[in-house]
Amino acid sequence: MKALSQKRRHPLAAIILLAVALVLTGGLYAVASATNQAKADSEQNYTADDIAAGQKLFQSNCATCHGTSGEGTDNGPSLVGVGAAAVDFQVGTGRMPMQMQGTQAQIKPGQFTDDQTKQLSSYVASLGAGPGVPDKESLDTSKGDAANGAKVFLANCAMCHNAAGSGGALTRGKFAPTLMNVSEEHIYEAMETGPQNMPVFNDANITPDEKRDVITYLKAQESNSSPGGLALGSLGPVSEGLFIWTIGLGLVIGFTVWLTSRSA
């Protein structure tokens, strides 16, 4: 019995079991990754030509910061697994390629055409499965609920972007940009990918229908009038109070000067 017990506890047995577990884990991961990638590519209708063209564009314009295979460098993060949506947002809004290093990528005219942006997106999507570009159904504001979108936006977004979506200041020179006149596609992609200082709102946090409702609310805000008069950018009580204080103080000083001159 003692010899049998010692044989069962032989160190090689533990090593063999560990090796088998690693092989099985690696195999399952490879199969799952391949399946997810195939699903992502089929949903986005990416072709081998798109991926090849995108790889050439990537090597010429993005590899310096993000690495030749998108693995990332000291100057830029890894793009493996960020998905097509992240590329479509960053490149489509002109934030990438960055014009210069700074606390935050600036919006500017896009450097690439729509076709080139799709090609870059397809190549990055091929590096690892991630959020895809939203379909037309997800962006159809005619099916959205602006009232529910307002509730979702106020609970999750207003603390940075302002209740009216006008944007606002953050710490260390960063800021939340205005959401007015931003395309439906880019708003949806921002929620899914969490660019820069923004958190990621995946489908478990905000459902696709709620994302569409948020977009519907923001588009309604764009067309809203200002029945109370000058909107002052809809930036809230701070800007409104500063405006009133400045104008009011100016009127008081002017009236005082006028009274003094009359007395003289």
UniProtKB/TrEMBL annotation:
InterPro entries: bc1_cytC-su, Cyt_c-like_dom, Cyt_c-like_dom_sf, Cytochrome_c_Oxidase_Subunit
EC number: 7.1.1.8
GO cellular component terms listed in the entry, alphabetical order: plasma membrane
Alphabetical keyword list: Cell membrane, Electron transport, Heme, Iron, Membrane, Metal-binding, Repeat, Respiratory chain, Translocase, Transmembrane, Transmembrane helix, Transport
Positions annotated to bind heme c 1: 62, 65-66
Any GO molecular function: quinol-cytochrome-c reductase activity
Topology class, membrane: Multi-pass membrane protein
Signal peptide: none
Catalytic activity: a quinol + 2 Fe(III)-[cytochrome c](out) = a quinone + 2 Fe(II)-[cytochrome c](out) + 2 H(+)(out)
Pfam annotation, one family: Cytochrom_C
Subcellular location: Cell membrane
Entry comment on modification after translation: Binds 2 heme c groups covalently per subunit.
Domain Cytochrome c, first and last residues per copy: 49-128, 144-222
Residues the entry annotates as binding heme c 2: 157, 160-161
Regions crossing the membrane: 242-260
Superkingdom, natural source: Bacteria
Coiled coil start-end: none
Subunit structure: The cytochrome bc1 complex is composed of a cytochrome b (QcrB), the Rieske iron-sulfur protein (QcrA) and a diheme cytochrome c (QcrC) subunit.
Protein name: Cytochrome bc1 complex cytochrome c subunit
